[in-house]
Amino acid sequence: MSSYHKQNAQVKSDNYIYNKQRWKVQHSRKEIIPKIMDRIFDQLSAALSWYSKVFVVRFELMIYEQPNDNKLVSKFFDNLKKRLHKHYGGKLGLIWAREQSATAVHPHYHCAVYLNGHKAHKAWGVGRHVEHVCGSLAELTSWDPKNAGYMVHRGDTRSIQEAIYRVSYLAKRETKDLTPKNVCTYQASRLKHNPDIKRPLNTLQ
Description:
By secondary structure, the protein is α+β, with helices and mostly antiparallel strands. The chain has four helices and nine strands, in the order E-E-E-H-E-H-E-E-H-E-E-H-E. Helices cover 29% and strands 24% of the residues.
């Protein structure tokens, strides 16, 4: 997985250009961080290069301590990837973003996973695996937001846009500023693109 530290770059718009296409994204009063947004696109694009259908699932992690690193969450995802791979097989992508509001005692994490949509199609099923891994790590608990699952079809503007808009919440700058210095505010998988499929997010072909 690749790691990135906090970035100063911001985008003041609810439109985002990726591979010469314009997409609607969420943004807050402190706007979005392009490097996170690019990783959201890149990993979804990579997943769609391997599967014509990709199931995107959002979930949240709450942590009951004040860590100066992300080791616990990294351990969580190492364990979750093993469970998801065993159950669904194939390749998967993921991304998470660490945040903490000024009034919160502990940080929380916004997360998304990209799975083979020919095997995974129920958010609650993925949620059961998330809960199981949290249960093995006493300091963590999970929460499933409303409408957590999105089936994305290669080259389909509507399904891609719906998933991108939802996951773009991870890229907002707001509440990331309290992360300790030199601690990553996000992390993403390194899923490589299938060289036989060119630009799977391009809906203008």
